[in-house]
Structure prediction request, 245 residues.
Amino acid sequence: MPEGPSIVILKDLIKALHLGKPEVLEVAGNANFDKDRLLHEKIQDFKSWGKHFLIRFNDFTIRIHFMLFGSYLINEHKKAPLKLGLIFKKDELNFYTCKVDLLEGNVKKHYYWENDVMANEWDSNAAIKKLKEKPQALVCDVLLDQQIFSGVGNIIKNEVLYRTRIHPLTKIENLPPAKLKALVKEARNYSFDFLKWKKENTLSKHWEVYSKKECPLKHKIEKKEIGKTHRQTYFCKKCQKLYAS
Prediction:
């Protein structure tokens, strides 16, 4: 599943085409909405919010969620069934194996960019406040809560918990204030490191615990599906402290 930084890369790739505000000349694919609504409409902007790619028109927005296996091609095609294809005068965008929705009205009615760890509007104080409202929640779960850390996925979750030396089964109420702040800070910091390494095609070389058998200090890595999310979690019991009441 693409994480927030990967969606930022897609947004930047499309903006690098210098499309301006392109008119949609043709629409293709099996997306389940009235695709004729897009014909001859001009795109106002391309945006990202967490794991969602947003194509903004005057009075509606197309939301694309890549789920587990979604993909896209710019000015290319593949044999897989097309979910949504947009053809402009000189370029085209094609999206596959993803979820596509049409959102009515101003996109700001649907999203708060203060939650997006990659956004300029990111509000760390708001994130800390929301975390304190979930005292019984596990840190491995809250890092994947898109209403707190929009854009954080499983790779970022695992690496942030190792960076902050927090055991994934620690409850929010048991975290010392300094560790709570560190958790929020590193969720954003690591996301931008992820973006940099992804662009360099070196991301996996920087993993410290994700998909590893040993941590950098040569301790054994535990691999378990834990928390309410039941997502695969990699952690080091020696390096990462389980805070308890």
